[in-house]
């Protein structure tokens, strides 16, 4: 995979909470397909991304749920995706991608008024 020199190390991606579409894209050689995808999100909702391998191009893109990210998540968060690949010659490879989401503070505040018992 383009740019991956050590499969044991995670790939880090930083995105904004307003980003849309492809957030990680790499060309591949000797990879036949994806055998499994694990989402390790410790979030209130999600998964917020989809993973694909089409014509030797590996991509991660935000999905429709990502538009609700700020509604359900209150802090900058990390999405972790582990992808297992089948490769030529019967071998396999595992790649972990850490996606850090940065809040752009692009929404007006929404205050909840607590009721007081008098």
Task: Describe how the helices and strands are arranged.
Layout: E1 11-16, E2 22-27, E3 31-39, E4 49-54, E5 57-62, H1 69-72, E6 77-87, E7 92-102
Parallel strand pairs: 1-7
Antiparallel strand pairs: 2-5, 3-6, 4-5, 6-7
General description of the model:
The protein is mostly beta strands and 118 residues long. It has one domain (11-96). 3% of the residues lie in helices and 47% in strands. The protein has one helix at residues 69-72; strands at 11-16, 22-27, 31-39, 49-54, 57-62, 77-87, 92-102. It has a 4-stranded mixed sheet with strand order 1-7-6-3, with no helix packed on it. The chain has a 3-stranded antiparallel sheet with strand order 2-5-4, with no helix packed on it. Strand 4 (49-54) and strand 5 (57-62) form a beta hairpin. The radius of gyration is 18 Å and the shape is elongated. 13% of the residues are buried. The mean pLDDT is 86.
User: What number is the mean pLDDT?
Assistant: 86
Task: Classify the secondary structure makeup into a structural class.
Answer: mainly beta
Secondary structure tally, helices:
1
Please report the total strand number as a whole number: 7
Radius of gyration, whole Å? 18 Å
Order of helices and strands: EEEEEHEE
The order of strands across the largest sheet is 1-7-6-3
- Shape assignment: elongated
Total individual domains = 1
Low-confidence stretches: none
* N/C terminus separation: 65 Å
Which range does the strand content fall in? over 45%
Could you estimate the helical fraction of the residues in percent?
A: under 10%
């Amino acid at each position: 995979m383009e740019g991956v020199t050590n499969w044991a190390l995670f790939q880090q991606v930083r995105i904004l909470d307003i980003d849309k579409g492809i957030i990680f894209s790499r060309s591949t050689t000797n990879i036949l397909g994806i055998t499994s995808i694990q989402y390790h999100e410790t979030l209130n909702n999600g998964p917020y991304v989809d993973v694909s391998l089409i014509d030797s191009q590996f991509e991660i893109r935000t999905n429709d749920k990502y538009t609700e990210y700020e509604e359900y998540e209150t802090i900058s968060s990390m999405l972790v995706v582990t992808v297992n690949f089948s490769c030529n010659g019967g071998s396999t490879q595992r790649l972990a991608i850490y996606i850090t989401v940065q809040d752009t503070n692009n929404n007006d505040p929404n205050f909840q008024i607590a009721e007081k018992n008098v």
